[in-house]
Structures are given as structure tokens and as C-alpha cells.
Amino acid sequence: MSFSYELVNLLDPYTKEPLQMGKGYLFNPVSGEKYYINSGIPVFLTENQMTGDNLKYSRFYDRISRFYRISSVFYCWLKGTTEKKVKSLYLDQLEIKKGSMVLEVSVGSADNLKHLKPDASYTGIDISFGMLTMARRQLKRWKIKASLCQGEAEHLPFPDNSFDVVFHVGGINFFNDKHKALTEMIRVAKPGSKLLVADETESMVVNTYQKNPFTRNLYQLADRDLSVPIHLLPPGMKEIEVRYFFDQKVYCLTFRKPAGFGGKAENSGH
Question: What pTM did the predictor assign?
């Protein structure tokens, strides 16, 4: 499959230097680092580069990627509702307009994009290549155009101030570095834009997942702070709000990046 990344210029996620196109890969002309393109998806993080929970959950989602969407739709059916109704609770908070540049961090199998406005420009990044493969397949079926890449939220391969809307749903509890991920999301958002971060609450993790024999081994997060990550936001964020859904089982944090915010790209090294 040919590669086309039309929305934003891609950067080296670790040095934030512009990348150039090679034959089947992107490369950093300063360091010589190459990032290969697999079936049209740039890969900025291979499994042998992953560590900690990022590695653990990447492998988990690779394993379940074929069944993820089916299980999600079936779960909504069991609860007597529809996927669209469930997702609208948080997706309706997004300020997507015609022509908006939208980034979903942890896009998964792209289920959220199905329920967003069709006249915006979408980009998705995820740590699981299996989920991205499903996303590409479903986006083609739904006739939705979106650019996809594999990488981690802590090192986004996009320039400062690139997106009108940045959001993340369901996964930040598992990130290696939640503070760095939030900082990166804010960095790539345009000044004045509204960001959204949603995930399961500590109550949901402890009282449901840790007691379920099928999920308790995966959700042993005793050393993790599972609170709403307001305290991890950099100073200066505006209009901070938290909403809770499904009997306090899911939180939805929204906030606005102020105009003139001084957050810049950080060179953290590879």
C-alpha cells in the first residue's frame, strides 16, 4: 500500500526534527534514524523499543484487535444501549468544525471516528499495530479518510500547534508516563483549542476489572494513580471540567489550551 500523510508534517518523535521521505521509510537527515512504513502506516515505535506498561498493553491489544469492535458493540447491546449513544456522551464535548484538524491519541480500531463529523481531517496514533490494522480496514469500509501511525503518546511525531482538536479515550491509566503524554497532547494542539481525556475511574478498575477472573491479572495497578489527572496538567490550562458517566465508572476531563501558552517541543533523545 502506498504511503500518503497529507495532514501535517511528521517529525522525529524523539528529537522533533523534520523527517524526509525515503524509499519505504521516513528518515531524520540529522541523525540518520529511519522509521519504516508498514502497509501505509509509519512505525515510530517497534515492540523491541517498548518498555513497561506500554509494552504490556501493546501486546494485549495486538492479541484482541480482531475481536475488539465486536466485543464493544456486544457490550453496549447487553447494557440495552447502542455504541453511538455511549460514545456521544463524551464525543459531543469535542469542538469539531468543518475543516478541523483532529488528532485522536490511542485511536485503537478507529471506532470513535465513525461517529464524528465527516467534513474534518483526522489523524490517529496508537501503540498497537494490530489495532491500527483494524482501524485501516474499518475506515476503508466506512469511507472515512484518516492518516494513521504507530507510536506512543509520550512522543508524538507532530509539530507544535498542529491540531484544532486533540482527544484521548480509554488508555491513559496504562501509559508509562501520563504527565509526558498530556504535555505532548497539549504541545500539538493549537492555542485556544479544547482537549479531552477520558478513561475509567479507580472505582471501575478496582470493583469491576480487578474482581473479574478474565481481567484481574491485566489490571493489577496497585502502584498507579488512577485519579482524574488534573494535577498532571501544566499550569495555565483554562476551562477545566470533569464529567462522570455510567455511575461514576468513567470520567471525562476537558480543558482549553490558552492562547500564547509557552509549551514547546522537548528533545528527550531516543
Answer: 0.85
